[in-house]
Design goal:
This protein is mainly alpha-helical and about 170 residues long. It has one domain. The chain is built from nine helices and no strands.
Length: about 170
């Protein structure tokens, strides 16, 4: 893929384009690779489950929430269902959450660069005029507080239902 230019990044990313351009510059100029040249993202670390959908990275959001839910359910199955304990300790959940946050913080900028490159490539392929092209990038990119809130609420609801059903299945009569 051709490299992204500043105008494309600014149109797609929106208000924080300067931050991401600074982080991505070595990759965009071909002097670094996305794995280690994009830096740590503190927002992705502290607010992983909110930051991912806020930046419209829905596939990564689903994977993130899926991993957290899987850990929660496995913890209940092991501690309650197999070991017969009255409840699962919260320790492993905190460990997995911390690891997930560190992964998101460490790779968040690289994931967002990849997401941006993929989106720009798709919009470029439409052969739009320059002004329409940049508007199409802005529409496809940017941020969504609504998505962030909806994904979080949806995750909480699905988790509560899944844990409730699992607890009913694991309770011994």
């Amino acid at each position: 893929m051709d490299t992204l230019n500043d105008q494309e990044v600014a149109a797609f990313v929106g208000a924080k384009a300067d931050y991401y351009l600074q982080k991505w510059r070595p990759v965009l100029e071909g002097t670094g690779n996305a794995g280690n040249a994009t830096g740590f993202n503190w927002a992705a670390f502290f607010l992983s489950g909110l930051w991912l959908p806020y930046r419209k990275m829905y596939r990564a959001t689903a994977i993130f929430f899926g991993v957290i839910m899987l850990e929660t359910l496995l913890e209940d199955i092991v501690y309650i269902g197999i070991l017969g304990r009255p409840e699962a300790p919260g320790f492993w959940g905190r460990v997995v959450s911390l690891i997930a946050a560190m992964v998101c913080g460490g790779f968040g900028n690289a994931w967002y660069l990849s997401h941006t490159q993929e989106a720009v490539t798709k919009v470029r392929g439409q052969g739009l005029a320059d002004d329409i092209y940049l508007q199409a990038l802005a529409n496809r990119g940017g941020t969504s507080i609504v998505a962030s809130i909806c994904f979080s609420i949806g995750f909480l609801l699905v988790t509560v239902v899944a844990i409730t059903l699992l607890d009913l299945l694991l309770k011994k009569p």
